[in-house]
Amino acid sequence: MAMFLDAGVAGCAVQLALTVASSVSASSSSSHCVVGMNVRCLPVARGLRIGPSRAKFVSSAASQGSVRSQRRGVVCEAQETVTGVAGVVNEATWKELVLESKIPVLVDFWAPWCGPCRMIAPLIDELAKTYAGQVRCLKLNTDESPGIATEYGIRSIPTVMVFKNGEKKDTVIGAVPKSTLATTLEKYLN
């Protein structure tokens, strides 16, 4: 599945990928830390936070006990945080909420690590408010429900699909303006 990240997150993703690749062969521990080039440890965290990490090193005057702080790259931490108006759908509720819906359904296929997905999340919530009662807006985390994503051929995220009468009617791929999503959605309103 392709990732589309903004510039700030892209650098972290590239750095992390290189770090993981270089440390997989070097480390056989089962801890949650990745030890490598510029990343010392990626702790389990909540939310999205991008900021400098700090590593301490002992200076040449180690015998005198002086310790300085050095900037050592960027730490990116993400976790699923679904807030807003749009509902959540998963493999267990897919049939009931999407396929058997009496009204059109807009489904946002996303993942917590995806920057553009987070960019369009407020747009999906705005559409849910604007079209309340006419359209059901839902979000599906592709990491938690990979079977649905595979079934509908989701190869990159964010992907927004419109369903009507249990059938996929339209697809919009990528972070697009609200007007594009609204125009796509309005084609399927009664």
TrEMBL record:
Transmembrane segments: none
Taxonomic superkingdom: Eukaryota
InterPro entries: Thioredoxin, Thioredoxin-like_sf, Thioredoxin_CS, Thioredoxin_domain
Gene Ontology molecular-function annotations: protein-disulfide reductase activity
Annotated keywords: Disulfide bond, Electron transport, Redox-active center, Signal, Transport
A Pfam family assignment: Thioredoxin
Region forming the signal peptide: 1-26
Domain Thioredoxin: 48-190
PANTHER family the record matches: GEO12009P1
This protein's name: Thioredoxin domain-containing protein
